[in-house]
Design brief:
- By secondary structure, the protein is mainly beta.
- The chain is about 10% helix and about 35% strand.
- The strands form three sheets. Strands 4-7-8-9-10 form a five-stranded mixed beta sheet, with no helix packed on it.
- The radius of gyration is 16 Å and the shape is globular.
């Protein structure tokens, strides 16, 4: 996600054959963005947070970037990425805060009321 001012833009990523072989060998690689993508073209949106709860409500940084952007991602799964230490019993989410499809931490996968150990 590229944030410029008050606007969020998605980026397409490209993986060439050499990079895929590099990744398959168990080495770390950085994939470089090459073009902007329209929200409706996305399959997956990874969303950061400052806090989240097991019901997949998130608290962001208070600017509303993702809350404004996610409604346009009609075909995408919105997956939060966080550390387990960021999980709270009940996130202080407002009615305008977008509820995500799930969260992944270093220990678990949360999908609404379900939890899966990693």
């Amino acid at each position: 996600m590229l944030i410029h001012g008050s606007v969020c833009n998605a980026l397409n990523f490209q993986c060439n054959a050499d990079l895929c072989r590099f990744c398959a060998a168990g080495q770390v690689a950085v994939v470089v963005a090459f073009a902007h993508a329209h929200p409706e073209q996305l399959d997956l949106v990874l969303v950061p947070c400052t806090a989240f709860d097991a019901a997949c409500r998130r608290v962001g940084m208070g600017k509303g970037y993702y809350d404004r952007y996610l409604p346009g991602c009609r075909n995408a799964v919105a997956l939060g990425v966080a550390f387990e230490a960021q999980r709270v019993p009940e996130a202080a989410a407002d009615e305008q805060d977008w509820q995500l499809d799930g969260f992944v931490t270093e220990r678990k996968v949360y999908r609404g009321t379900d939890e899966f150990e990693l």
